[in-house]
């Protein structure tokens, strides 16, 4: 029996600023309160020095060449705490993923067109951050990889599923999902607050997180990352938490 649909945090809705973004019937419009809190300035100097040190290392590794701006990694939000949606608990933490056969599961329940298109753009072997969302302290907890590219999300046709979509047809499904497999836990939990501090500093000094979708499209549950964004966030696991 498949797990209930759960890999969509309740903030994963269409950005109202986008005229062509539609919201499916099953989609909620409740924002992630943790991720929409007013931004606060980072501790003086802490983020900028981290960015400069990281930049020096990357320049040493690559001969100072600028990397192309392409999306080749991802950030997947999931809710680690119990929350009922139409009578179904949508909780799914990284520990739940690790408990699955072969530590693999389908990433279902996405009901936002932009997020769906990101799912459809994923390629075999690409890595993604597993991000705990809509909880007391959101943040990156681990890494997964794509082991099956996009195919129809069966939950859109299941009337008992909280993400059932009566307007979707089997001959032309609206919604897709991918299969992901656990790779590893990050060496430490990387909280949203810490990533936000670097984002704010990078907006001022041109660092890699300056345009990170976690802050420009924070309500999307599926987000692309550039190589630089992925590498920088991953580098934070080596640092002691502030």
TrEMBL record:
InterPro entries: 5hmC_binding, EVE_domain, PUA-like_sf, THYN1-like_EVE. It comes from Nyctibius bracteatus. Residues 73-235 form the EVE domain. This is Thymocyte nuclear protein 1. Gene3D superfamilies: ph1033 like domains. SUPFAM superfamilies: PUA domain-like. Specifically binds 5-hydroxymethylcytosine (5hmC), suggesting that it acts as a specific reader of 5hmC. Residues 41-52 have a biased composition (Low complexity). Residues 10-28, 56-65 have a biased composition (Basic and acidic residues). Keywords: Nucleus, Phosphoprotein. The keyword Chaperone does not apply. One of its GO terms (cellular component) is nucleus. The keyword Nucleotide-binding does not apply. It is found in: Nucleus. The lineage of its organism: Eukaryota, Metazoa, Chordata, Craniata, Vertebrata. Its main location: nucleus. Residues 1-65 are annotated as: Disordered. Pfam families: EVE.
């Amino acid at each position: 029996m498949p797990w209930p649909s759960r890999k969509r945090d309740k903030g994963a809705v269409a950005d109202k600023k986008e005229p062509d973004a539609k919201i499916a019937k099953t989609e909620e419009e409740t924002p992630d309160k943790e991720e929409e809190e007013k931004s606060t300035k980072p501790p003086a100097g802490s983020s900028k020095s981290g960015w400069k040190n990281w930049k020096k290392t990357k320049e040493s590794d690559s001969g100072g060449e600028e990397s192309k701006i392409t999306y080749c990694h991802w950030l997947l939000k999931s809710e680690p705490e119990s929350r009922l949606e139409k009578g179904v608990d949508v909780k799914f933490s990284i520990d739940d993923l690790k408990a699955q056969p072969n530590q693999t599961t389908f990433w279902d329940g996405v009901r936002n067109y932009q997020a769906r298109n990101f799912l459809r753009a994923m390629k075999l072997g690409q890595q993604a951050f597993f991000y705990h969302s809509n909880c007391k302290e959101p943040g990156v907890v681990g890494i997964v990889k794509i082991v099956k590219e996009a195919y129809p999300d069966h939950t859109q046709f299941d009337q008992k599923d909280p993400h059932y979509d009566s307007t979707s047809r089997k001959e032309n499904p609206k919604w897709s999902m991918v299969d992901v497999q656990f790779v590893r836990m990050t060496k430490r939990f990387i909280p949203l607050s810490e990533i936000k501090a670097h984002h704010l500093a990078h907006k001022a000094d041109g660092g890699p997180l300056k345009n990170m979708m976690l802050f420009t499209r924070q309500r999307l549950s599926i987000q692309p990352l550039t190589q630089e964004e992925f590498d920088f966030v991953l580098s934070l696991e080596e640092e002691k938490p502030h």
